[in-house]
Amino acid sequence: MGLSLPNLQELYLGNNQLVGSIPKSISNLSQLTLLDMSYNYFSGSIPDTLGNLRKLERLNLDFNNLTSSRMSFLSSLTNCRSLEILDFSDNILVTGGLVGNFSDSLQRFSASRCNIKGSIPSEFGNLSHLIAINLDDNKLTGMVPTTIGGLKELQSLSLGDNKLEGKIPSELCHLNKLGFLVLTNNKLSGPIPVCLGDLISLRQLLLGSNMFSSSIPSTLTGLHDLLILNLSLNSLSGPLPIDIGKWKAMTRIDFSNNQFSSEIPIGVVDLKELTHFSLSNNRITGSIPDSFEMSLRSLVKEKLPSMLNRVGDTNLLSTSGRKGLAANNICALSILQVALECSVETPYERLDMKQVVTKLEKIKVNLLTDLME
């Protein structure tokens, strides 16, 4: 291929069932700017000669069974001074560590789930155009380099499921465009930096399964656009933020398995988009706020009329199947309506059990009737 197609610029082989090793002759495609071999069954070693592709801009070797002795192919790729995207995640690269002296044209570096060992090179801080660093689920050790704080364009930093130690460097608070910070399941410790509350672009802050101590910085409630917050499985203590309701857009909060000892903040009831809220295995005191229960009931009541068309896709069924699905949906929603009538605020307005049985029997009859027609 490298000899017979000398002018080839882009080669897409992704999402097939190709096997065998990567032909070294690919390195002769001197005009190649894009090489995508992802989602196949390629095995063997990644050629060290890929660095001969001096015009290469994008390289995707994701999801294969490739190896590399001492990660030598990475050193060769430092010769590709136009390289923008490098992805070799989900391979079995078992020896060697990372290098960081790539061209500053690099925008995305993804090497998750590759058994990479060693530390994160401080030279990453020189890659001024990096948008994303994904190094999840490896065997990285050492500290998070402070030099990463100089990557002003960085939007995603994902280092979860490694063996990183030390504190979160305060230099990360300089990343004004950072939207995703994932540091779960490491050995990080110390207090959570107060300055993280300055990262107004954050959408996901995942710090679970570490050894963070002290309390939650009150500044975090200033992250109004935060969607997911995971601080579970740490050693955090003290009160929960009172003004938690400022997280208007939040969908998931996990504070479980810490040492929090305050009451449930009343501001939780203002989180109308919240789908997951966990405080299990803490020292929470007091009672569940009445307004929290009623807020949940009001939300269900509000969403109930629109649930019918979201339970199943009627386009996937035959005419009879669609009819049966519709009948089942109506039945399910009718039962939910009975549940709402059983949970109204004042006891005397709730259904007694005779009324409940009568209503359920009627729902059953209607369902059987609809299915028989």
Fold and architecture overview:
The protein is α/β, with parallel strands linked by helices and 373 residues long. It folds into two domains: 293 residues, Leucine-rich repeat, LRR (right-handed beta-alpha superhelix), CATH 3.80.10.10; 66 residues. The chain contains four helices and 22 strands. It has a twelve-stranded parallel β-sheet, with no helix packed on it. A three-stranded parallel β-sheet has the order 2-4-6, with no helix packed on it. Helix 3 runs antiparallel to helix 4.
Q: Mean pLDDT across all residues, rounded?
A: 87
Helix share bin: 10-25%
Strand segment tally: 22
CATH topology term of the largest domain: Leucine-rich repeat, LRR (right-handed beta-alpha superhelix)
Strand and helix order: EEEEEEHEEEEEEEEEEEEEEEEHHH
**What ranges have pLDDT less than 50 throughout 5 or more consecutive residues?**
316-320
